[in-house]
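Model the whole thing, not chain by chain.
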Amino acid sequence: MSPSDTRSDPPAGSTPGDDVAKPSRPAARQGELALFAPPAATDEMLVPARMVNEWTYCPRLAVLEWGRGEWAGNADTAAGRRAHKATETGAAPALPEPEALPDDRTLKTRRLLLASERLGLTAELDVIEADDGCVVPVDIKTGKRPHVAEGAYLPERVQVCVQALLLREAGYVCDEGALWFADSRERVRVELTDELIATALRAASDLRLTVASGRLPPPLDHSPKCVRCSLLPICLPDEVNWFRKGAIARTPPPAATPALPLYVQTPGARVTKKDFALVVQVEGEADRAVPLDEVSELVLAGPVSLTTPAVHELLRRDVPVAWMSSGFWYLGSTGPQGPRSAAVRTAQYAFAADEARRLVFARELVAAKIRNSRTILRRNWRGEDGERGPLLDRLALLADRTARAETAAALLGIEGEAAALYFRALPKLFTEGVAALPAFAFERRNRRPPADPVNACLSLLYAVLTRTFASAISVAGLDPWKGVYHVERPGRPALALDLIEPFRPVLADSAVLMALNNGELAPDDFVSAAGGCNLKPKARRALIAAYERRLDQETTHPAFGYQVSMRRLIQIQARLFARFVSGEIPRYPHYVPR
Amino acid sequence: MARRSNAEHAYVVAYDISDPKRWRRVFKTMKGYGRWLQLSVFHCRLDGGRRAEMASMLEDLIDRDTDHVIILDLGPAEDVELAVESLGKSFQPIERRAVVI
């Protein structure tokens, strides 16, 4: 091993081309110039050692996390945190200056932050051991030691190498690093070869340049690495590759967490935090405690109060709070949602400014909506057989006609015509028992306020569906208020209204049908006042529960072919829309089941 | 080492804590992870991440020499039919469904 005086670093202050001539740098392969990113300017972010590891593992992962502010945890990241706990407790003596380093005893310290603007690197060191005038950075890894010739995989070795380079930069003598594998309790020595140093510096430099260019590297192709990657639900490697190669996607990406929304809509209810749970207090009822981890979103409708400690805890956990009126009009959300980056939103605004692209998208959107309403009619038809065929044909014709619509206004006409046909046929989907009840007579769709029970149910679930999409859209980094097909108006989540169009029949209408046909709603579950009709509290709960049950049902994704719950499908579609506006995939695959 | 799966599993967590102060803390913590079944016994439905978090929380709370916590993995929450005989009160597996209040 070479001692510390033959350091291989990118040259300070020199032009990037100079460093090829430096003797200490390992010779670049023929025909390839080793061009490094210039030293970091003062306001530039330094590349963390962990990100150099991730760039080496998967460039897309590093750019998503470091450049786009995305993060998601899974069982492996939780296990990693647990393994690191050992470094967070106990004494952490200060690391003495290099000259004052004791040479006669072993010193151990932990949790040290190092940075170098010249290298453009920073690192958080788990454990540093000093012995005999030399220091050794030790990085803690969960899992077992891999049985490979180098002792560990390249990404981990590169990470330790960056830590060692930073120690050298701070003036210490550092000849080697180490990795500690917590599960098998084994230590692996990492030799700082010139080759490893060059790889580490190149990775850091490539990452910095890629993030600066704003480019998102393509996903890995059917890589075994993806399966356990915690960013799988965000990155969607197979889904993106489907557009590039037509390859069949493997399994659907897991949901970010298995948590579910918690709805509180009983007037006068109070939501408080107690220890690790949210407690909902309703007068005259026993308190209900829901563990905080099991709440993906807190939905508050109407006069419901939420305490400040509960808000703080929800903010800390990144759980959004959706505020809705008692009529379930979406007012907005509280909370940090989505990635800490505006990259996707910027692309969304650029997309929304492009009239031509908008129209192409809107055509497909309306066609998908008409096809889906046709599917609902086809599947649930209980009327006379003779009427069914011509109606389905007319809807199919209208869906085809969208492709020739020249303007958004023409598209609106086609959409309206199809909606009239569809809603006129809706009572044909009711069971005989429901159809016989005069309370559930349905002639046409009306709203503001809905005049009859069926319209009241539809309005409620459309509002809840809008909220479901508004959350999924924000989590994907998009702006729910900027639409493509719907005109923006203050207080109108236009993008959510756009994207729910194909889902209205499959999620909301079918949940209403399910609740009515199963007898979950009875005529006395509704109150009519001042020309409007409303659901009683118990009925509202039943209908929302039916909708949430519908979200848990599985479906086959029409493009990717795998089985996926509707709940996850919505998250996948929101992510795909974000990829689509960013130009990473050529078109947005609408959900059009057969 | 506990299995590391992102799928949801059903668990029974039982503990013996010698000190009342620590016992109370463990009890409060466990309420954030599962349903209280009996004295010092909780029934949980957790994915791999929450399972690891729960274990590391408990690890911090207990005294390794005098206390004891066991986490029994009953298998995948969705697929496994729990063969439970419950005498006296009834036992219900935790269903995953949105709460509407």
